[in-house]
Write a structure and sequence with these properties.
It is built from 30 helices and two strands. α2 (44-89) runs parallel beside α6, α13 (288-311) runs antiparallel to α14 and α13 packs antiparallel against α17. By secondary structure, the chain is mainly alpha-helical. Strands 1-2 form a two-stranded antiparallel sheet. It has helices at 2-38, 44-89, 93-113, 118-124, 133-136, 139-156, 175-189, 192-198, 211-220, 223-241, 247-253, 261-282, 288-311, 314-326, 330-340, 343-370, 387-406, 413-425, 428-437, 447-450, 460-469, 476-481, 485-506, 508-516, 520-532, 534-548, 551-569, 578-606, 618-641, 648-669, and strands at residues 375-377, 380-382. 75% of the residues lie in helices and 1% in strands. A hairpin with a 2-residue loop joins β1 and β2 (380-382). Residues 446-472 are annotated as: Disordered. The chain crosses the membrane at residues 226-244, 256-279, 291-308, 314-333, 345-367, 387-405, 491-516, 522-542, 554-572, 578-603, 648-671. Residues 2-158 form the SPX domain. Its main location: membrane.
Length: 675
């Protein structure tokens, strides 16, 4: 059996040699490009494009090679099947163990065939003329997996008089088979749209985990708990935007100016700046308790918001909104998905997080538009101003009850240590497999030595490994030090687009009432329509535009279109018409949505690996940047109100214009570093 395996490996190495020579030649060409770039001859973008063209020239050979390798694997399975027939007649425990390992070795080689680099595959897989389309028609792969599963199951049932087809249909729990299935699923179902939506959440998407990590994930994951986190995300976004159509009316009913709506809306964002940090830190120890605290704070905040009308107190109103902001558990929701959801569904969960946010953003104003009534019950008033508070208070009480009876607290570090330790003891071979897959597929123990023949060792891999081995950032300052200039520019872009969107949304009720005399219901419908554009726009960008254009091209184009939308929003002609306002608002909002998706997609790729996990992670930094933008924007609306409502529109748009121009200039300077 051992000699048989060695002979197969020797034959396969001969097949790899020609492709390895091409690999070495391309590697030397890349080194030449690097030297030219350092000398100022070519930029990084040109290097990437030329190297991609080199790979395109080889792709047909590579596809044919992959199909050939599938045939070789099938041939190996056929020969192993002959060995199995012999063992059925003359059972030998030691030979059965060797045969089982030989089948797993075939599975390991199949797994190697499924490993592709993210850039090359994702940019070419969906193109209609790409030869990589043949790779995804993996009928041969499915047949190999089926043969491996059946034979391994037969060996596990050695000595039984029943066939595996007579047994209940239970999936084979073999680590190699599970990893192959996960890899195939990753290639087949992780569409560009799903990836694009999922990257909005800035949740770590790792490669296929080890067997130990799979076991830990299975113990931590609980579907109802995930659903509760997504529900928390949805309700919080509803809570944020349900008051937008009526905030100006509410402030005037309490004796304040209509532009105080900026402070009312923004006070929730002010508190969220602080709550994001302590919730992120709290989630290191528990997920259940932060969610309970969040629900209680949001219930109390909405209760005070509703009671402020009868108490005739703007202070009570603002305290209620501050308490709502202190209950923002989005950092916990993000951490739960990142730490507790298995890798195979983490991308779907991340997309669910973003979709829940978008749906909440649309439902908030829509619900407000339905609450157009006015009556008193004892000493309490129920009208369009107070009903959003009452409705959300009831919603959070119901959520808290659901949370207490359905949430399952996952295991944390001290508990996981024992499980992971036991899993490691039984999966050492799989750990070696995963480590081996990180190296070039063509290298064996003998060919590794050839890699250094020309003295061209690469230190990038070791540097990345060293970077990943370090722990997460332990403070905001240490996280800031990990930010490269391109990441800082992308955070500036995120600040800019959130500022522009908040100005548009928060002052919409004041502006439309002033210029067009819109009712609360009309404003609510307008805002709901804007919110409903989020997912369709992202579907178009994720499924089509990202296949035709590079992310940085879409980024720059979106910034310019956003600038055009801001310019069109200025009141420079009389009268200020509804078509001008609606069209400019749509251009601004849609371009900001496209910009947000592309910006976070780029940010998730270039941000340091140390910011993927921990309290001070990339998601927290982006949340803080967006929240600060909302605080500044809402403060701008209130301050601009002192200059008069007739100047409100132009005064609040001017900072948006200047910040947008600054972000476009910064993007030009860092354009070649954005990939």
């Amino acid at each position: 059996m051992v000699n048989f395996g060695k002979r197969l490996v020797a034959d396969q190495i001969q097949e790899w040699k020609g492709y390895y020579i091409n690999y070495k030649l391309m590697k030397k060409r890349v080194k030449q490009y690097v030297h030219q770039t350092q000398a100022g001859g070519q930029d990084h973008y040109q290097v990437l494009k030329e190297f991609s063209r080199m790979l395109d020239d080889q792709i047909e050979k590579i596809v044919l090679f992959l199909l050939e390798q599938q045939g070789l694997l099938a041939s190996r399975l056929q020969k192993l099947g002959e060995q199995r027939e012999i063992l059925l007649e003359q059972p030998d425990i030691s030979q059965v163990c060797q045969l089982r390992e030989a089948y797993r070795a075939v599975g390991q080689d199949l797994l190697k065939l499924l490993r592709f680099t993210d850039y090359y595959v994702t940019t070419r897989a969906n193109h209609p003329y790409s030869q990589l389309q043949q790779v995804f028609k993996h009928v041969g792969i499915g047949a190999v997996v089926g043969a491996l599963s059946r034979n391994l199951a037969d060996l596990d049932h050695q000595g039984s008089c029943l066939s595996i087809y007579d047994q209940p249909s239970i999936p084979l729990k073999d680590p190699v088979i599970e990893q192959i299935n996960a890899s195939v699923d990753r290639l087949t179902h992780s569409t560009n749209f799903l990836q694009f939506i999922g990257q909005h959440a800035l949740i770590a998407q790792e490669d296929i985990p080890s067997a130990a990590e799979d076991i830990v994930d299975d113990h931590r994951y609980h579907f109802m708990s995930l659903l509760l986190n997504l529900a928390n995300t949805f309700l919080y976004m509803v809570n944020t935007y349900i008051i937008v159509p009526t905030a100006d009316d509410y402030s005037m009913s309490l004796g304040a100016a209509a532009t105080v709506c900026g402070v009312i809306i923004g006070s929730m964002a002010v508190a969220q700046v602080f709550s994001s940090v302590y919730f992120s830190a709290w989630s290191n120890k528990s997920y259940f308790r932060p969610l309970v605290f969040s629900s209680i704070m949001l219930f109390m905040g909405n209760l005070l918001y509703a009671l402020a009308y009868d108490l005739n107190s703007i202070a009570v109103l603002l305290i209620g909104r501050l308490l709502c902001g202190l209950g923002s558990a989005r950092a916990v929701n993000r951490r739960y998905i990142s730490d507790c959801v298995p890798l195979k569904i983490r991308l779907q969960a991340s997309a669910g997080f973003v979709s829940a946010s978008a749906l909440g953003m649309a439902c908030g104003p829509a619900i407000a538009g339905l609450l157009q009534t006015n009556f008193k019950l004892y000493l309490l008033t129920f009208n369009q101003n107070t009903l959003p508070g009452w409705v959300m208070a009831v919603a959070w009480i119901m959520y808290l009850f659901w949370l207490c009876i359905s949430f399952k607290e996952p295991m944390h570090d001290t508990e996981e240590g024992h499980t992971a330790l036991d899993a490691d003891a039984g999966s050492m071979n799989n750990e070696r497999l995963e480590n081996g897959l990180l190296q070039p597929m063509l290298l064996s123990s003998g060919s590794k030595e050839k890699q250094d023949e020309d003295g061209d060792q690469d230190f990038d891999d070791s540097e990345e490994a060293s970077e990943e081995s370090r722990g997460p950032a332990t403070s905001i300052a240490s996280a800031y030090r990990l930010l490269t200039p391109s990441v800082k520019v992308q955070l500036l872009i995120y600040f800019m687009l959130k500022y522009a969107m908040e100005i548009l949304l928060s002052e919409s009720s004041v502006i439309t009432t002033l210029y067009f005399s819109w009712s609360t219901s009309t404003v609510a419908i307008f805002l709901a329509i804007l919110g409903l554009t989020v997912l369709p726009v992202n579907a178009i960008v994720g499924s089509y535009l990202t296949n035709m254009l590079e992310d940085r091209q879409i980024l720059l184009a979106s910034e310019i279109i956003l600038l055009v939308g801001i310019i069109l929003s200025f009141h420079v002609t009389r009268p200020y018409s509804v078509p001008q306002y609606v069209c400019s608002a749509l251009i601004t909002f849609v371009s900001a949505e496209v910009l947000e998706g592309v910006n976070l997609s780029l940010l998730s790729r270039v941000m340091s690996s140390r910011l993927a996990r921990g309290t001070y992670n990339g998601g927290l930094l982006s949340t803080e940047a967006g929240t600060l933008a909302r605080v500044v924007a809402d403060g701008t609306i209130t301050l601009a109100g002192y200059l008069g409502e007739d100047r409100l529109l132009n005064v609040t748009l001017l900072p948006s214009l200047l910040i947008c121009l600054a972000s476009i200039i910064a993007t030009f300077f860092t354009y070649n570093t954005l990939y």
